[in-house]
Structure formats: C-alpha cells, structure tokens
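Saturday, quiet lab. Running sequence design on the structure tokens for the scaffold JK sent over.
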C-alpha cells in the first residue's frame, strides 16, 4: 500500500468504526425502542426471532431509509417502521448505514492494496 494512503485509510476506517459503535448503540436503545412502543399501540410487535440481541437493527435501518424494504415477509413486518420513525431516528439510521458502508469500502480498498503489493 502506498505509504501516503495508509494513514488516511486507517483514520477513515477508525472514524467509521467509532461512528458505527455510537450510532448502533443510539439506534438500538433510542430509535428502536421508540418505534417498537409506537408499533405496539397498533398491535404490531417486534420480530419474535430477535430477543434482545439487536439483530433486527439492520432491518429497521433499511425499512427507514429505503421504500423497497417496507414490505411484510416471513421474518419481519417492516411496513409500519418508517411510519413511526421520527426525524432523529432517520438521521441516526443514515449515520448507521453510512458508517457500515464506509467501513466496508475502506476494508475493500485496504485488501486491494495489500493484494497488489
């Protein structure tokens, strides 16, 4: 890897990693809790397969950010998630998604440069 690019990629990766940790914590503790409470008022409940580990966070993020994923399927009913999401929930979801995408892109570039040398 080019020596001038290595510190930049490392800094970017660590920034995205830190951002991911903070946004995933905020999203799971604040946004998902709010959305689940609002959905329970409509007699809709969180997925039965996710009992406290937060595996459904990515499904919530995609349902909030992309219309295509607001469907009902066997694993998850995402039709009402965006309806109950506040503006802050959308911002945290966007930061969460951007952080994950940024980490993946940084890792791909680092892997590419490692394989070329």
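Result came back. Writing it out in full:
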């Amino acid at each position: 890897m080019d020596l001038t690019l290595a510190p930049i990629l490392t800094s970017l990766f660590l920034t995205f990693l830190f951002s991911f940790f903070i946004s995933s914590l905020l999203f799971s503790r604040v946004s998902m809790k709010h959305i689940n409470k609002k959905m329970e008022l409509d007699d809709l409940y969180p997925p039965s397969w996710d009992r406290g580990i937060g595996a459904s966070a990515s499904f919530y993020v995609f349902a909030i950010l992309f219309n295509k994923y607001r469907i009902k399927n066997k694993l998850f009913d995402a039709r009402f998630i965006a309806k109950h999401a506040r503006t802050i929930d959308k911002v945290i979801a966007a930061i969460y998604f951007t952080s994950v995408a940024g980490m993946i892109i940084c890792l791909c570039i680092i892997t590419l440069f490692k394989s070329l040398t």
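Notes for JK: The first helix runs from residue 6 to 41. The chain has a mean pLDDT of 85. Ask whether to fix the surface positions before the next round.
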